[in-house]
């Protein structure tokens, strides 16, 4: 990869700019350019696409995205120490990399991007799930992005793709799978990063659906699943009693046993229940 863009290896970049990863920023740098290229390829054909990257750090994935043909990359980086390294990449790819020094939770990224748009990022651990939830819950669907290719702690990735009656099944799985196709495309050991985290990481690829998989009011569905999984060991007739009178009858009408627990219920059934509740 270094031979493709003429830029130095990432370890040299980190040494030259004194980029010691900061725990408070959730930083774990991925230095193997072969791995960053694999992540970029997992996002699909980037030719003709604008790509949003959050937390580029020294720019390993940024280089992979550009080398794989991304039309433009918008990199949002909170740590100002990384800006000189990213500027060197911008110089190597004139007109194709824009860097914003800011917090991804606050930047209006859509104003800087043109469709089609893909989001590809080794997300900082401390904001990864919050960013995912925001991208999955816009006011209007379909969202501004076509796909998400994101690295998380492996446990979070497993929660995104989990199926009913499994350990990791919960609200995050329902939220992601209601509106997206989701699959794990790559798993990475701790030693792939600097510094090495205590857990494995995994890359999840989510492709948006043009409309939700099953009809339901998003706010009602969110409320039902929150109540159900906040007390996941209780029977649904108990955990959902706050939904009002007649909840047992609605559960039965949705094809759900009132004595079942949240982890046993498929997305389609939760959506059916949400429609019944909304219609009341």
Any overview of this molecule?
This protein is α/β, with parallel strands linked by helices and 280 residues long. It folds into 2 domains: 2-208, Rossmann fold (3-Layer(aba) Sandwich); 218-279, rRNA adenine dimethylase, C-terminal domain (Helicase, Ruva Protein, domain 3, Orthogonal Bundle). It is 37% helix and 18% strand. The protein has 12 helices and 9 strands. The strands form 2 sheets. The chain has a 7-stranded mixed β-sheet with strand order 4-3-2-5-6-9-7. Helix 4 (60-67) links the parallel strand 2 and strand 3.
Largest sheet: 7 strands, mixed
CATH topology of the largest domain: Rossmann fold
Count of alpha/pi helices = 12
The helix-and-strand class reads alpha/beta
Whole-angstrom Rg: 21 Å
Tell me the fraction of residues in β-strands, as a range.
15-25%
- Number of separate structural domains: 2
CATH architecture of the largest domain: 3-Layer(aba) Sandwich
Large-scale geometry:
elongated
Report the span from N to C terminus.
Answer: 59 Å
CATH homology superfamily of the largest domain: Vaccinia Virus protein VP39
How many beta-strand runs?
A: 9
**Poorly predicted ranges:** none
Share of helix among residues? 25-40%
CATH C-level name of the largest domain? Alpha Beta
As laid out across the biggest beta sheet, the strand order is: 4-3-2-5-6-9-7
**Mean pLDDT over the residues:** 94
Order of helices and strands: HHEHEHEHEEHEHHEEEHHHH
